[in-house]
Amino acid sequence: MDQARVVGWGVSRYNRRAGLAVFICVPPWIPRLYPIVRIGIGQDSHRLVAGVALRIGGIDIPHDRALLGHSDADVLLHAVTDAVLGAAGLGDIGQMFPDTDPVNRGRDSAEMLAAAWKRAAGDGWRLGNLDCTVHAERPKLGPHRKAIVDRLAQILGCTPGKINVKAKTAEGAGPVGREEIIAAQCAVLLESTQEKT
Ligand SMILES: [Zn+2]
Questions:
Q1: Which of 34, 39, 139, 177 is deepest in the core (most CB within 10 A)?
Q2: Domain covering 36-192 in this structure, CATH number
Q3: pTM
């Protein structure tokens, strides 16, 4: 079996069967052979109130209640935005889009995620993968899962295969189970071939 590891400015590779060790020198001005990876996590929740405007993952979902928030209250896109900004070391969604700024009132969260992604991509990051969980007692999100994945892929400019969306109920327990809130969590992996300082 081959064993490879990055050592200093190069890669050491050892083939046990052949008993051969090779060190390949990689000067720092040559792009890295192995990408730098960074992980980011995102979490958000919004209160459910009377209304019919429920948007999750950039998709309008028919429901008898709505999420309350300063923007369009898209709980999943807010979590993803925070995860992207966190992984890229760019702060958080509140710093980038303060809720004290009237411009952000009722704002489309897809626009906010796209702006956050543009900054991360501008710093040389590309998406490794994104894994999300939405906690909602109702409505059932299964039928909307593909549309949500496709929309996220469209905003992040990647293939849908890099994105996974899961939906969970709380089986009647806690604020999610009592249908007081909908919450979302996600983890994102960003990759870059550029050195970060
Ligand atoms: Zn939010």
A1: 139
A2: 3.30.1330.50
A3: 0.84
